[in-house]
Amino acid sequence: MTSRFALIDSQQQPLSQSPAFRGQPIPTAGRLIINADDWGRDRPTTEPILSCAMKGTVSSVSAMVFMEDSERAAAIAAERGIDAGLHLNFTTPLTAPNCPAKLKDQQLELGGYLRRHALARVVFHPGLAGAFEYVVAAQIEEFRRIYGADPSRIDGHHHQHLCANVLFAGLLPEGTLVRRNFSFQPGEKSFVNRFYRRSMDRLLSRKYQLVDGLFSLLPLLPVSRLQQIVALARYQVIELETHPINPEERSFLFGEGIFQLIGDIPIARRFCLAGPAGPAE
């Protein structure tokens, strides 16, 4: 019989064993969270996410700050009750007219470094430590300004919130819900890749709250892949990462495909780790 944990590497730490949950309530049942990235990047990106959120096929959004549509998106989130976390951005130029020149310059420097070679993300660069600290602090403060609260959840554009200069310098507030590494079926990635991801997730779990599994909505085929992922959500807290700006993902989330897939498993109404997952939220 296939274990309900089959899709997730057998050595990953269960959520209930995470030190972040000592003395705190933990999920007693599963949860399917569909989270849309890049909220506020620009109007063409925000609008399809909004449509999916209003349809109930997106649970929450990851919001970019200092982008051209950031402030409008924040106002929409407040008006429509859309759950938003911070989408840290080191790699796409900041486009908001009110963005300080110093912040633009330092963020561009970091983006150039992180895109320069494959190992940039995993190697701590002491010469850029100050720039990373400044850019992270500025984006957290801007989120606080336009959303009216500290971000309770943080992830990263192109997953760069997991780069060495962010994690090893402790730039993310302890106790925050932080996006983990992607989960993969056994054999999907090399041993070295899976070992690195496991090690990073163990480090993350010492200071931050994590979901049990993170998967990308794409690829949509074979259908069996998504069926297996959704089945995990009966027992685990599962995040599906999506980008509705992508026509394939938007059609799937706005049509009947998503409802045919999930069956009787409800889509969470917000991003949280415990409590009811269905319409009663």
Give the SSE map:
Blueprint: E1 31-39, H1 43-55, E2 60-63, H2 70-80, E3 84-88, H3 101-116, H4 129-147, E4 153-156, H5 164-167, E5 177-178, H6 191-207, E6 213-216, H7 223-232, E7 237-242, H8 247-254, H9 257-262
Parallel strand pairs: 1-2, 1-7, 2-3, 3-4, 4-5, 6-7
In short:
With 281 residues, this protein is an alpha/beta fold.
Fill in the keyword field for this structure:
disordered N terminus; 9 helices; alpha/beta; TIM Barrel; seven-stranded parallel β-sheet; 12% strand; 281 residues
Strand order of the largest sheet: 5-4-3-2-1-7-6
Structural class: alpha/beta
Q: What's the structural domain tally?
A: 1
Number of helices: 9
| Bulk shape | globular
Radius of gyration: 18 Å
Name of the CATH superfamily: Glycoside hydrolase/deacetylase
Describe what this molecule looks like in 3D.
With 281 residues, the protein is an alpha/beta fold. The chain has one domain (15-262): TIM Barrel (Alpha-Beta Barrel), CATH 3.20.20. Helix content is 37%, strand content 12%. It is built from 9 helices and 7 strands. The protein has helices at residues 43-55, 70-80, 101-116, 129-147, 164-167, 191-207, 223-232, 247-254, 257-262, and strands spanning 31-39, 60-63, 84-88, 153-156, 177-178, 213-216, 237-242. A 7-stranded parallel beta sheet has the order 5-4-3-2-1-7-6. Helix 2 (70-80) links the parallel strand 2 (60-63) and strand 3. The chain is globular, with a radius of gyration of 18 Å. Residues 1-28 have low confidence and may be disordered.
